[in-house]
């Protein structure tokens, strides 16, 4: 599973890869600098040897400082993604206006009244999940059911299972430790966030402010998943941490 995540990072992060290469070159320059100085000294005299050492050291310092300055931009976030591709909702996918604008996640992320559009393959704190995977299930796993395929307007129009934000809030889009495409939407009070995982495609950028009913991506199976589904999680701020809670208790 770790390997998958690393592959994903490498694929999506060529700048990080370049940074790694620069660091490797810089580190490998440290040892040759005094050696080169000494060599020039013995061939062309100490003055030139000293000048060459200073010049090499200068280049070394510049590259090092440059790397240090640039690294937070490259490493900390999806920097590359932000400069190369601004994610947009495809023109054939509309917002679901049956969602009400709210900071409380009362609707199903696949749309439909209550849970009519979805079946649940793993519950919140599901014991079967714990036994099977050895991990605590901190959300619910949702898959579209027959009613969804028969009635969802979005599915009929796009032939894709579109996931909608369930709250108004600001977006954080990232790839989790298992390679799962993840979107978090945090309400403006920073008291609650909705987390959506395993997308095959994501439509929203980190930092965007969106409303409940905004399409955020296409259901998929990226990351820790055995099949296509939506892992849906609600976190509530408690003190300095985000506590887990059952998302189903909100869906009306
Ligand atoms: Zn799950």
UniProtKB/TrEMBL annotation:
GO terms for molecular function: metalloendopeptidase activity. Residues 162-238 form the M23ase beta-sheet core domain. Keywords: Membrane, Transmembrane, Transmembrane helix. It comes from the Bacteria. The keyword Flavoprotein does not apply. Pfam families: Peptidase_M23. The keyword Membrane applies. This is M23ase beta-sheet core domain-containing protein. The chain crosses the membrane at residues 15-35, 47-75.
């Amino acid at each position: 599973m770790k390997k998958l995540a690393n592959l994903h990072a490498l694929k999506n992060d060529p700048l990080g890869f370049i940074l790694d290469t620069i660091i490797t070159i810089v580190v490998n320059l440290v040892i040759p600098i005094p050696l080169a100085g000494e060599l020039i000294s013995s061939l062309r005299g100490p003055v030139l040897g000293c000048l060459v050492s200073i010049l090499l050291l200068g280049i070394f310092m510049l590259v090092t400082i440059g790397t240090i300055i640039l690294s937070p931009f490259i490493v900390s976030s999806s920097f590359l993604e932000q400069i190369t591709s601004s994610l947009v909702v495809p023109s054939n996918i509309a917002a679901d206006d049956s969602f009400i604008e709210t900071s409380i996640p009362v609707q199903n992320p696949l749309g439909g009244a209550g849970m009519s559009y979805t079946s649940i393959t793993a519950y919140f704190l599901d014991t079967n999940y714990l036994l099977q995977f050895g991990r605590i299930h901190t959300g619910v796993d949702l898959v579209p059911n027959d009613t969804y395929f028969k009635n969802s307007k979005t599915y009929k129009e796009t032939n894709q299972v579109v996931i909608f934000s369930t709250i108004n809030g600001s977006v954080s889009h990232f790839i989790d430790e298992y390679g799962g495409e993840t979107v978090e939407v945090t309400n403006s009070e920073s008291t609650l966030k909705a987390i959506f995982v395993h997308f095959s495609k994501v439509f929203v950028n980190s930092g965007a402010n969106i409303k409940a009913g905004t399409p955020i991506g296409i259901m998929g199976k990226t990351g820790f998943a055995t099949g296509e589904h939506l892992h849906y999680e609600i976190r509530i701020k408690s003190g300095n941490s985000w506590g887990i809670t059952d998302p189903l208790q909100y869906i009306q």
